[in-house]
Each structure stands twice: as C-alpha cells, then as structure tokens.
Amino acid sequence: MNFFILSIIKAAIVAFVLLTTLAYLQWIERKVIAHIQLRVGPRRVGPHGLLQPLADVIKLLTKEDMLPSHVNKVFYLLASFLAGMFALISISVIPFGTEINIGGIRTSMQLTDLNFGVLFILGLSGIGVYGVALAGWASNNKYSLLGGLRSSAQMISYELPLAMAIAAPLLMLNTLSFREVVNGQSGYYFGFLPRWTIFQGPFPQVVSFLLFVVAAFAETNRVPFDLPEAENELVAGFHTEYSSMKFAAFFMAEYANMVTVSCVATLLFLGGWLPPFPPEYGSNYVPSLIFVIGGGLALYHGINPARPFDRITLPVAGIVFLGVAAMLLVPVVAAILLPLFWFAAKVGVILFLYIWVRGTLPRFRYDQLMSFAWTVMFPVAVVNLFVTGLLVAIVSK
Amino acid sequence: MDAILFLIFAAIALGCAVNLVLQTHPIASALSLIGVMGALAALYLLLGGEFIAAAQLIVYAGAIMVLFVFVIMLLNAGAEQESRKRLAAKVLGIPLLVVLLGLVGYVLQNALLPSEGVKFGAFRHGTAQDVGRSLFTIYLLPFEVTSVLILVAILGAVILARKEID
C-alpha cells in the first residue's frame, strides 16, 4: 500500500510541476521572441506579465465551447483527448534525478523506471500522431485535412532518423533504461571532461545529437518544420476548428512534447542530472553562485529602478534568489536540488534553443522538408549508426 | 492482479476487434484496429515479452496503422454501403461463425497448448538483449530471409510507383 501512496504523491508533484512548466514555457517563449523582435512582450497582467499564463488559462476555460455542426463529433472530441493524453503520459518514464531519501523513505525521482523506457517513449511518440491526424480528418475542413496529412507524413518520415539517432548512443551505453543510460555517462576523462555521450569514446555522438535535435523539431511540429499549422497557407492547420479547452489540449500537447523531447535529449546525450565538471572543481557551488549573481543584479536594479514598479518587484525577486542560493548550500537540501538543478538547466537550454530557432528561422517548403528527411537526415543517420556500431564492436573485442 | 489486468486488456482487445468488423466507416475500423494492437501490446507485457510489447507499439500501432489512417484520409473514403445479403447468409451467418470459432479453439487447445497453464511473470527472457541474441543466433536464417523478402517488397513498390509517374 505504501507503494501506491508514494506513487500517487509523486504523480501529483510531477503533474503539478509539469503543467506549471507548460504554462510558463509559453510565457517565456512570448517574452524571448518579443525581445528577439525588439518588442517587450506580455507585461499587463502582473509584474512583467508573470500572471499572463494564469489569465490565459482562465480565458481558455471560460470561452464558449463551440462544437461546429459539420464535424464528425466522436472523432473530433477524441482527437483532442488523444493528443493531450499521449503527450502527457511520456513524462512518466523520465528520471529527473538520483535516488533521494526523505525522512527514511528512499525513492527515485522518477514515476516509474521501465527497463525499456527509451522504447516506450518512441512508441508513444509514434502513437501521438493520431491526435493530430484525426483532428485534421474529423474537422471536415480542407485546411484541417491538409494539416493532418502533412503532419502524419512528416512525423513518419522524421521518426526514422530520430530512432536511429537514439540507437547510436544506446549502442555505446548498452541499455534501454533511462536511469542506466545516465549512470553509464558518469565519470570524467582527464579529470574534467564529462563522459556524456556527446564526448564519450569510442565515437563521440555529436552527429547523433544534431540529428536528434533536428528530427525532434520536426516531430513536435515546431518552426522550421511547422508545416501542419502553417498559418499563411492553412489558416491554423489541423486545429483550425478547435476552440476553448479543446484547443488548449493541442496547445498543451505541443509544449508537453517539447519538454519530453528536451528531457530525452538531456538524458541520452547530455548526461541527465550529472554536473558538467566534477565536484572537486566546485561544481556543487555553481547553482548557488548563479542564484547569488541573479539576486544581486535584481537588488541592484531594484535600488536604481528603471520603471516605478521595479522598486517593489525586483527586490522581492532578489531576496527570493538569495534565499534559494542559501538553501542550495545546505547539504540535505542540496542532495535533492543539485541533480534537479543540472537536469532543469540542460532541459532549459534545449527549450531555449527551440524558442530561439522559432524567432530566427523561416519555414521550410513542403517538398524541401520531405527531401531533407529522406536524402540528408536518413543516410547520415545510417552511416552514423554503422560507424558507431563498428567502433563499439572493435573496442569491446 | 495480473489476472485482472489480463481480463481487462483481453476484453479491450476483443471489444475493439468486434467493433472493427461492425463499424461501417474505414477510420472507425482503423482506430479499432489500433485499439487491438495496443491491448495486445499490454498482453505481451503481462506475459513478460517487454521488447515485443514495445515493438508492437512502435511498429504496428505507431507506424503501420499511421500509414493506414493516412491512406484512408488521403482517399477520403466514405462510409461503407450495406450490401444486400442473401437470406441464407442472414440466418446461418452467426451460428456458423460460432461453430467455426469453437472448432478452431478446440483444435488449438488440443494440438498446441501444453497441459499446464501459463503463469504470469514466469517468462523472463523478453528483454531486448535476449530477443536480439536469439534473432542473431537461433533464428538467424529466418530473420535474414524475412529481411530480404521485405527488401524485395520495397523494390517492387518503388518500381510500381516509378511506372505511375512516367
């Protein structure tokens, strides 16, 4: 029974953190893109627009729930449900940190440690396409249908290089469980270079990492591969006919897929929760240092405010940052928070890359998208897998 | 616990399979087939075939059925028309089906199944390592022959598609 209670508590925490992350990821995206385009972004609701996600959720909940008369009702409703569900399930096999010990209860920072977790994620990402495809078909609208068709074709094509890019580091690590994948990357070369798979011998997986990131952009239908919802051709693509919470499900699914894919990239290539240099060189103090610098900057700008309300908001933020910095120095708390910090930092870098690319790159043309998958990504992935396999076989002999 | 889960997923698989036949719309049938695949994957998992379960999910539910759905959507196939049936088919159809299923079940039970029942969790050789090892040692020849067969099928498909364009 203890196991059930523990699982429910962990699931509740993960669900709460994940949903909050999704809401604020959207705020961060709007802010970052605004600054890339020399705008200021959302800033009406709350200080610096920090309550904007909350306002958006209320707006989506209270909007009229329209059911267009020409749609196929069952599949129309099922599609948004499927898209949201498969996107959220994947997080259950992602480990966020090492085993922890709270009040004598030992548990791992992971909902469930499947010994074929990597395959489970691949399977879910394959099934996830039904939400989009079905939405496009059931909407009974030519723009939606084109969006759904594009999405299916694109996801089938890019799943191949994605799977092969995943296979190469797995060949070196010789496991399919995410926890073992990260454990296989612990240790350092020459005392400072981490044994993450992008640095690990016999064949550093830089090519796999690039292939994975590019294919992941396509799998999550993000710029420059967002053809399924290209607004200047297809209105809004597969979710043209969706409104209020049903639209929110698709929106949430897109961001949840982004988070999952970033987590997988972190775990497979960037060493998960392992620090980028060993604790002997002080990697345990880096998080505190970052928070102290952040808090100091916030306090400084609070004392010399550029805008009237900065006098109140920035000192509060600064004190919170300094508090977190102090907490990270307490050994008991640090044991839990340090792995989480490194994991979140690496995932955050990849998520920032997503947003950065969206603010920078134009969209592919559809034939370019397809020929890129089959004539560039796929051959490179095959060669990469062969070379990795060959070198692993030679070294293990 | 395992028995309850087995019953649940077996019921889902059977329900989806019956629904697959009864539905008149191709998309509904295809989705039912995906349900069958998913439930089968869960059953493999219960029996300890974890790699087979994942492969079932990735290959059948994730790849092959997406292509099915893709083609149905592309052709925009409508609902199937009810064809006029003969009286004999209407009257004798279901009883004959029951007899056929009963016979097949009887033969299978006598010929194939060992006398002792299946135990959940008794089979422990379903990991990717075990499957890979047996594929490249005991079953090497069937594995290679199948891959050549698939290669031939792909080449055939490419040639057929080429002719269409010219």
Strand content of chain B: under 5%
CATH class (first level) name of the largest domain in chain B: Mainly Alpha
Number of domains of chain B: 2
- Please name the CATH architecture of the largest domain in chain B: Up-down Bundle
> Sheet bearing the most strands of chain A, described?
2 strands, antiparallel
Identify the overall geometry of chain B.
Answer: globular
Largest interface: A-B, 27 and 24 residues
Predict the CATH topology of the largest domain in chain B.
Four Helix Bundle (Hemerythrin (Met), subunit A)
Descriptive overview:
The complex is a heterodimer of chains A (397) and B (166). Chain A is built from 14 helices and four strands. Chain A has helices spanning 2-36, 52-62, 73-89, 117-127, 129-138, 142-173, 178-183, 206-219, 231-234, 244-269, 286-303, 310-327, 331-360, 366-396, and strands at residues 99-102, 105-108, 188-189, 193-194. In chain A, the strands form two sheets. Chain A has a two-stranded antiparallel sheet with strand order 1-2. A two-stranded antiparallel ribbon of chain A has the order 3-4. Chain B has 166 residues and is mostly helical. Helix content of chain B is 77%, strand content 0%. In chain B, helix 1 packs antiparallel against helix 2 (26-46) and helix 2 runs antiparallel to helix 3 (50-75). The radius of gyration of chain B is 20 Å and the shape is globular. The N and C termini of chain B lie far apart (60 Å). The interface between A and B is medium-sized, with 27 and 24 residues.
